[in-house]
Structures are given as C-alpha cells and as structure tokens.
Amino acid sequence: MRSKKPVLERQIFTPAEQRAAKAERVKVSEAEPYGWIAESQSSRELYILYASPYTKRLVCTCADFIYRGKDDPDYECKHVTAVLKFIGRWYLQHHYDPLQQVCGNN
Ligand SMILES: [Zn+2]
What is the per-residue pLDDT for 44? Predict the structure, then answer.
C-alpha cells in the first residue's frame, strides 16, 4: 500500500516581507536634535535615520540602504520600516484628526 506524503506548502516570503519581519526586532527611539535611532536587536548596531527635506522620505545610514537605495528610490531597509511604524503610532496619538485627514489628496 502506497501512502501519499502530504505536500508541505513551502512558505516563500519576498525580500520585502522578510525585512518587515526583521523590522519587528528593531528598537526605535528619537534622536537629538532630530531624526531617529534604530537599534538592531540581533546585531546590536545603531543607525541614525532622518527625513530627507527633498524627497520627504526616510534616509538610513546602514549599508543595506546606501547600496540598494542607489538603484531603487523606493527601497526601505528594516530600519526605515521600523521607524515608519514608530512615526505612525506617534502621529495617531498626537496629531491625527479624522476631520483633517488629507492623505488622499496628494
Ligand atoms: Zn537601515
């Protein structure tokens, strides 16, 4: 009697999904006088992030961002992902006003 082995569905994550998972292990705090500090829990390395006044996007100082960001302006390293979540929570707590929501207008 032949038994059919169950086919295990392999979970394949895109690089962006893998970075999103890693971003969960990045600790974020505010930097002085501006910007943010992202601390990778696994490697215990600190990176400084700031918002570019030209692109209105976050810029990270890690090697990943510097090299991959050169070819892809939409590239977000795990530190950028983590800081975006940090800013999002802060915004909801301190600034969000449903009557002033204008995100869809730009
Ligand atoms: Zn980074």
Answer: 81
Q: Region 67-76: what's the mean pLDDT?
A: 90
Is 99 a domain residue? no
Please report whether residue 5 resides in a domain: no
Residues within 5 Å of ion ligand 1, judged at the Cβ atom: 60, 62, 65, 77, 79
Cα 101 to ligand 1 centroid, rounded to whole Å: 29
Range of the domain at 49: 20-87
At a CB cut-off of 8 Å and minimum separation 6, what does 69 contact?
A: 59, 60, 75, 77
pLDDT in tens, 73-91: 889 999 999 999 999 999 9
Distance 102 CA to ligand 1 centre (A): 29
Cα separation of 69 and 78, whole Å?
A: 12
